[in-house]
Design goal:
Radius of gyration: 20 Å
Strand order of the largest sheet: 1-2-3-4-5-6-7
Order of helices and strands: HEHEHEHEHHEHEHEHEHEHEEEH
Number of domains: 2
Distance between the termini: 41 Å
Strand content: 15-25%
Number of helices: 12
Number of strands: 12
Shape: globular
């Protein structure tokens, strides 16, 4: 996925070229506004790799971008944001009509960090059951609309949930192609290890048709994601599996998104690295810290972390679970975060 701002046409074309050179078969771009869609038209003129568009919270953008791309990705958890009085089935039917008209495939992208409200109500805290049911029922909609050109992805930052959810889904719908990913895996090497855990277990079961590696790395290093993905595939094909220490999931867990065009301040990537270094002293404590780069996924996808950061243009929002602590300047946030960490450690001790 391109991590640059979509409206920066030159930077996005450059990153697409880097990804393609690294071996990417398809590149995904996030579209969040009409200006993003205008930029996409310019971007398409300068690239020759298939493109997928992430519709984010505005599914209506599909009509504008579909003539220029090969695939539309929608998240069932975001469909309620617009036209709240309209049934989800009608929205999906409209998306299918647009995709059919322009010869686009569809990806149903279910994310454990943004579960649709109706599934949260039905399944409570059972996230695996909720996201699997959501994926299955949206497949049923595709069947009802006689649209076979779709794939499903079910992602989370915890590779164990990714394995469980995709295994359950594959049992329920073995006919549907599956796109694999561990979202917000974080920085290397931990992000690579989390991704490998999920991909090795799923690919070894015959689950997975396409995949994406999501790492928090500088923009010019995004080709690393393709390199890692292809290495994992080669290892599985040749029977090479990496052992994981029994205590890998013990202690501090840092979740970080891989960046995308929604990031409003590129300091986010440096901040993630700074947090990793600063928190080394807390490595033995069972704490989860989530670092998100935008206001779209940040507020919701930090809810399950002990401490969460989501980044805006000039400030970083600090959360304690679902509670907002405050917004702080980029040069203030590390001290504030450390204070919160120390308080949590003291309480648990």
């Amino acid at each position: 996925m391109a991590a640059t701002r979509t409206q920066d046409v030159a930077a996005t074309r450059h990153q697409i070229a880097l990804l393609q050179e690294a071996g990417a078969d398809l590149v995904r771009i996030a579209i969040d506004s009409p200006k993003d869609a205008e930029a996409l038209v310019e971007i398409v003129r300068g690239v020759d790799v298939p493109l997928s568009v992430d519709l984010q919270e505005n599914y209506r953008m599909a009509e504008v971008v579909a003539p220029h791309v090969d695939k539309l990705r929608y998240n069932p958890g975001h469909l309620h944001h617009h036209e709240r009085g309209k049934p989800v089935q009608e929205k999906v039917a409209w998306l299918v009509d647009i995709a059919r008209k322009h010869g686009c495939a569809i990806r149903i992208g279910v994310n454990a960090g943004s579960i649709a409200p109706e599934y949260k109500e039905r399944f409570g805290g059972d996230n695996v059951a909720a996201i699997v049911a959501c994926a299955v029922e949206h497949c049923d909609l595709m069947d009802a609309f006689d649209f076979p050109g779709f794939v499903v992805s079910i992602k989370d930052s915890d590779p164990r949930l990714v394995v469980e959810a995709n295994t359950r889904f594959a049992e329920a719908r073995p006919d549907v192609p599956i796109h694999l990913g561990v979202t917000e895996a974080g920085m290397p090497p931990e992000g690579i290890i989390k991704t490998r855990i999920a991909f090795e277990q799923l690919l070894a079961r015959g689950i997975g048709d396409t995949l994406r590696v999501s790492l928090t790395v500088p923009f010019d290093d995004k080709g690393k994601e393709i390199e890692v993905g292809r290495q994992i595939i080669a290892d599985v094909e040749n029977g090479r599996f990496r052992s994981v220490p029994p205590n890998f999931f013990d202690g501090l867990n840092i979740i970080a998104c891989p960046s995308c065009s929604r990031v409003e301040n590129e300091k986010f990537i440096d901040l993630a690295e700074d947090v990793k270094r600063m928190t080394e002293y807390a490595a033995e404590y069972d704490l989860t810290i989530a670092i998100m780069g935008c206001r779209v996924n940040g507020p919701g996808e930090t809810d399950d972390a002990d401490l969460g950061l989501w980044c805006g243009p000039t400030t970083v929002n600090l959360k304690r679970g679902e509670e907002t602590v405050g917004a702080f300047a980029y040069d203030e946030i590390l001290d504030k975060l450390r204070s919160e960490i120390d308080t949590l450690i003291a309480r648990r001790s």
